[in-house]
Known about the structure:
This protein is of the alpha+beta class. The chain has one helix at 2-24; strands spanning 28-34, 37-43, 50-60, 63-64, 69-76, 85-90, 92-94, 97-104, 109-118, 121-130.
Amino acid sequence: MKKLFKLVSLLTLGLFFVACGDSASEGFTKSGKAGSLDVTYSSAKPLVVGDNTMHVSITDGGKALTGAKVEMKVFMPEMPGMPYMDYIKVLDASGDKYSGNINYSMGGTWQVKIYIEKDGKKYKHSSSVIL
Ligand SMILES: [Cu+2]
């Protein structure tokens, strides 16, 4: 009986960790290249229509890129019955993290551009998200 109780406790504990793992992975993250740089942009929460705190991290040959000017732009091309719309934000730098609010004003596919400027060199990362 004691053994069974132990087993049930372990299973319950296991489920608890599985549940926690799920909620942690519900955030958003996507990676790609900007020229020679590696770019990851993410949000702690799933993306929603409206305001989202986005984080960008950049590495150059595996080393975090600090002191860059990073601008994020999201846009939707014009569609029948919908004008072109965009949202542009220069991200705040804090160490090797660049963050800022991005507002996706409607559901659908948004084109994402991340412009990076460092020591006079310019890089661009192109991506897209679906809300
Ligand atoms: Cu639209």
